[in-house]
Design goal:
- The structure is a single chain.
- The protein has 15 helices and 23 strands.
- The protein is α+β, with helices and mostly antiparallel strands and 440 residues long.
- The model has no long low-confidence stretch (mean pLDDT 95).
- It binds adenosine monophosphate.
Length: 440
């Protein structure tokens, strides 16, 4: 089957690899020349993924039957609506269903209306004065989120990035003045606990959960520094996490099932990957946000474990019959670490060469995914975003972590940085203990 894959990052390289494994002939659209995707594709187009007209024209010219959309921005531009209109099935939601990610106020209002468990206190504002008045009236700490898409980087938390109420006010004013993320702000109850990611396949009515993953958003070791797109992530061989029980997971799955039903009731059935970001609090899982796509890095934890045919699954997502498909994941743990340009998250050093010995990584038993790099004249050059990801896959988190580190020796460069603590026993143990203390 001819399948279109949209996007040029690590997540999309994982998607393309899984499609090829499922027997697809892959045609890709990406804005940078990701060497991994370029090599695995029958043909590719270098173009902005948000240029709907161009992408649709390319899909038609190549005779694709199915499309998988990696990033969120083409969804917001209505790429799926345009492809479906041309008779191309999509594993990715329409513009209307994608509001579950693209509009935080839509998402929270939907959860309230359908009484989805796991929702939290929130309010959204397009007027600065009203936001200020609200802040004066509440007695709980907040998470401040610019409305619209900011790639997870505009969110600031009281007690972490913002010392107190007055710093909250300063940041809220800045969001309005500089129009960060568009115009407007969401003020949410601040949650305390441990985060986890639950990704699901959705066919409009049903969901099938994938193994849980924990991502590390902070730039520096010990979960310090600015928020980034994600520095790395891990998953456990039992498909839970060391601090998440199966009943916690069931609660999270239930929240997501009800959200998908709510979207269908609103006339916006969700066909795609629905990503739930949860905070496990002392009272159970709470919804931080939904994304209308795989996570990056989290896609690279789950897709290499998929034993069933990903092309069949994507066709089931598009066609509304995921329940007829097998969605089996290997019982193994994964640890993913991103190699990023020095300064990533604040002042990244772009256009510096990195060397990747793919065979060495393979010999170590790990998988390699290219991300926001460019291939020019036989050289691989960094951009301002993440460069390559290395994923260790083994019987336990500990051994997957060691494998990942052995494989990382085959990626070198003068100005690169890796968070080596991800997946290490000590950092995970701290999380387990923190969760135990919270739940007491
Ligand atoms: P988001 O872009 O919504 O995923 O937020 C980015 C990061 O901010 C998350 O990964 C969390 O670490 C943190 N965060 C978001 N919302 C909250 C909240 N309500 N309480 C505490 N932390 C939050």
């Amino acid at each position: 089957m001819k399948v279109l894959a949209v996007g040029g990052g690590g997540r999309e390289h994982a998607i393309v690899k899984a499609l090829v494994r499922g027997g697809a002939e892959v045609l890709s659209v990406m804005k940078n020349k990701n060497p991994g995707i370029a090599r695995a594709s029958k043909d590719f187009l270098l173009a902005k993924e948000t240029d709907v007209e161009k992408v649709v024209r390319y899909a038609l010219s190549q005779g694709v039957e199915l499309a998988v959309i990696g990033p969120e921005s083409p969804l917001e531009m209505g790429l799926v609506d345009a492809l479906v209109k041309e008779g191309i099935g999509c594993a990715g939601p329409t513009k209307s269903a994608a509001r579950i990610e693209t509009s935080k106020s839509f998402a929270r209002a939907l959860l309230s209306k359908y009484k989805v468990p796991g929702n939290i206190r929130f309010a959204s504002f397009t007027d600065l004065r009203e936001a200020e008045r609200h802040l004066k009236s509440i007695d709980y700490e907040v998470a401040v989120k610019p409305m619209g898409l900011t790639g997870g980087k505009g969110v600031k938390i009281q007690g972490e990035h913002l010392a107190d109420g007055s710093e909250v006010l300063v940041y809220v004013r800045e969001i309005f003045e500089k129009r960060i993320g568009g115009a407007g702000v969401v003020l949410e109850e601040r949650l305390e606990g441990e985060e986890f990611t639950l990704q699901t396949f959705c066919d409009g009515k049903h969901i099938v959960p994938m193994p849980l993953v924990q991502d590390h958003k902070r730039a520096f070791e010990g979960d310090k520094g600015p928020n980034t797109g994600g520095m790395g992530s891990y998953s456990s061989e039992d498909h839970l996490l060391p601090f998440v029980t199966s009943s916690d997971m069931e609660e999270a799955v239930d929240s997501m099932r009800r959200t998908v039903q709510a979207l269908a009731s609103e006339g916006a059935p969700y066909h795609g990957i629905l990503y739930g970001q949860f905070m496990l609090t002392k009272d159970g899982p709470r919804i931080i946000e939904f994304n209308a796509r795989f996570g990056d890095p989290e896609a690279m934890n789950v897709l290499p474990l998929l034993e069933s045919n990903f092309v069949d699954i994507c066709a089931g997502i598009a066609g509304g019959d995921i329940y007829g498909k097998k969605c089996q994941f290997k019982r193994a743990a994964t640890v993913c670490k991103y190699v990023v340009p020095e300064g990533y998250g604040f002042e990244p050093k772009a256009n510096v060469p990195i060397k990747v010995d793919e065979e060495g990584v393979q010999r170590a038993g790990a998988e390699l995914f290219y991300a926001a790099v460019n291939e020019e004249g036989g050289e691989i050059l960094t951009s301002t975003s993440r460069s390559v990801a290395v994923v260790g896959i083994d019987v336990s988190i500990d051994s997957a972590e060691r494998q990942c580190e052995r494989a990382l020796r085959f990626v070198s460069g003068e100005h690169i940085y890796v968070r080596h603590d991800i997946g290490k026993h000590e950092i995970i143990q701290r999380k387990v203990e923190r969760m135990r203390a919270l739940r007491k």
